[in-house]
Amino acid sequence: MKKLLLSIMTAAVVGNGALLAAQTAKPAADNPFSEIEQVQQEMDAIFQRLHQKLLNDPALSEFGDTFTKTPATDLMDKGDHYLIKADIPGVDEKSIKVTEKDGQLTIEAETVKEKKEKKENYVHQERFVNKFVKILTLPKDADASKLKTSYKNGVLEVKIPKHK
């Protein structure tokens, strides 16, 4: 099983290496970090494709939804505050943890699914734990000490006022 996972991961990374080498990142003159952001986006795309390959591999189908998924997250400027929306359906609100440290907002959540199968004289039970951590760099004028969160219909909203 370990060899299979290693083979899939190696093939995904090597196969995408030629694609990355062929693409040229063009940094904007006014943003010295744009090249780093471009590389980060490319790496995210590589791992997203690898993740999809792992999820679609028949040999790994027994693991189901146990692989960590990255939720879609939006950061919006609403004038006097920032609004972050993260799609995390199926999560118990009590398992969501939002923290801020050194200008970075960390969103953590965990889901636990149980599968029970009853037959004659035994019970078969499995637990699948799915955890994710999303870290966002906040704008400098965000006052994270006054952030407020709400969770409804699978969407976490984090409202962060701006410094005055």
Overall body shape: flat
Q: Tally the helices: what do you get?
A: 2
Domains (count): 2
Count of DSSP strands: 7
Strand content: 35-45%
Structural class from helices and strands? alpha+beta
User: Could you tell me the mean pLDDT?
Assistant: 77
The CATH class label of the largest domain is Mainly Beta
Ends apart, CA distance between termini: 55 Å
Low-confidence segments, ≥5 residues, pLDDT <50?
Answer: 13-27
Helix content percent band:
25-40%
N-to-C SSE string, H for helix and E for strand? HHEEEEEEE
Short synopsis of the structure:
The protein is of the alpha+beta class and 164 residues long.
Walkthrough of the structure:
With 164 residues, the chain is α+β, with helices and mostly antiparallel strands. The chain folds into two domains: 1-66, no CATH class; 68-164, Immunoglobulin-like (Sandwich), CATH 2.60.40.790. The chain is built from two helices and seven strands; from the N terminus they run H-H-E-E-E-E-E-E-E. The chain has helices at 2-22, 34-56; strands at 73-77, 81-87, 97-101, 104-119, 122-137, 148-152, 155-161. Strands 1-2-7-6 form a four-stranded antiparallel beta sheet, with no helix packed on it. Strands 3-4-5 form a three-stranded antiparallel beta sheet, with no helix packed on it. The chain is flat. It starts with a helix and ends with a strand.
